[in-house]
Amino acid sequence: MRRMSAFLRPSVHVIPACLIIGGVIVVGLHAGLVIALILVSVVFACPSWKRLPSVLNCGDAKSTLMTASPDCRSTPMLRRAKLVRALQSPKVKWLIIASVVVLIIETTGLYTMCWETSYSRFTYPLEVNARELLRALEEGRSPGVVPINSYKRYRFKIRNEQKCAEVNGTVRLLLLVKSALKHTAQRDAIRRSWGFEARFADVVIRRVFVLGTGKPEMQDEVDAEYARHRDLVQADFVDAYYNNTIKTMLGFRWAFEHCRKAEFVLFVDDDYYVSVKNLLKFVRNPWGLSAADSQEENTPAPFIGDGRLWAGFVFPRSRPMRHRWSKWYLSLDEYPFSRFPPYVTAGAFVLSQPALGDLYQVAQYTRPFRFDDIFLGIVAHKAGLQPLHSDAFRFWGRPETSHEFDGLVAAHGFDDPELLVRVWSSRRSRARRNHVVPT
C-alpha cells in the first residue's frame, strides 16, 4: 500500500507544469502567463528561496527526515520543502522558461502570424464579379446572386426622409455624423459650431446624426431632440462598439435611399473637429489645391476617371492584430490573410455619390466584418475603388497650434463639447480678423 500511495502521488517536478497548464485550461492564456511569471520570479528573482533553511527554518536544506527538526517532520512542511527543492532543479527551470516563451509567442500572436495566408492570395466572400454586379443593378437586371448582408432588415425608427427631399436642386455636402445615443452634448456642440447648415449662403449643406438604440428610458429624450432639431436618423440596432459596421452601413443606406441629391457625403464621428470650408475646397480638387481653389466653394470638382471619390487618412498596408489582449484581435478563422486591403480610417472620410452607391451595393454581397473601416476597404477592393490619402484628415493627435489647423479638414480628439465650441469660435474669430471666410 505504501508503494501504491507513493506511485499515485504526483511528483513535485510536474507541479509547476500542472499549474501552468491548469491556468491555461481553466482561466485562459492570461492566467497561465501570470502563473508562469510568478514561478519564474520564485525560481530566479527571490534569492531567499535558494536556501531552504531561511524559508523553512528546518536546519540544513539537505537534511534527511531523521535529522530534521520536529517542526520539519510534519507532512505540510515536507511537501513545502520538496516543492521548493523541485523548483530549484535545472529541469524545472527550463520547463518554466519554455512555458513562458510558448505563452508569450501565443499571446503576442507570433505563432498565429506563421500560419497567415499571403495577401497575394486575397479573396473574401462572396466571390463575385463586382463590376458586372454593379452594371446589372444599374441596368435594372437581376445580378443572379442573392445578397448575404442586407442592411434592409434593420428598421429606421426615425427615418427623417424629408431632410434632403425638401431641397430644390442638389445638396453640395451631406454631413453624416455617427453619434452615440447618450452624446446629446456633443451633438449640440456640433450644431453650434462646424455643423451649422447655413454657414455658406451659396452652398447647400445638410446635417444628420446616425444613432442606434439603447435603454428604453432614453428614447423619449431622443424623440424630443428630433422634434427640436429634425436632424436625427435612428435605426433599431444596439449602439455598441462592435456594431460600428452596422451603424456606418445604415448611414450609407439612408444616404443612398433618401439623399441621392448629395454630391458629397462626409462620414464623421461626433468627437471630431471639421473645417467645412476646407472640406469644400478639398472636394473641388481632391488631387491638389491651388490658390484659385480658395475662392469658390461651390464649383463642380474636376474628377478624373469614373468620378468615384473615397478619401481620408489611408492605411495602405495595415496588418491584422493577432495580439490576444487587444480589442482589435482577429483570429485566423475571422481573417486569415497577412494584411488588409488599403482602407480609409473610419473616423472621418468623404465620398462622392457614385462611390457611396457602389460601396453600399457591393457591401450587400460581402460577408460582414466587425471593423467598419476594414470592411469598407474589403468592399472597395472588390468594387475596384482605390482610396485617396490626404493629410488634411488628421489621424494622429489633436492639433494645438493655429498653424496645425491651417488646411485641416478633420481632426480627432474633441470629445469635450466645450473644447470643440471654444476652438471653433477661436478659429472663426481669427478668420474674421484676417478678413477671410470663416472656417
TrEMBL record:
InterPro entries membership: Glyco_trans_31
In the record, biological process GO terms are: protein O-linked glycosylation
Which of UniProt's keywords are assigned here? Glycosyltransferase, Golgi apparatus, Membrane, Signal-anchor, Transferase, Transmembrane, Transmembrane helix
* Gene3D superfamilies the record matches: 3.90.550.50
Q: How does it sit in the membrane?
A: Single-pass type II membrane protein
Identify the enzyme class.
Answer: transferase
Entry protein name: Hexosyltransferase
Protein species of origin:
Amblyomma maculatum
Species lineage? Eukaryota, Metazoa, Ecdysozoa, Arthropoda, Chelicerata
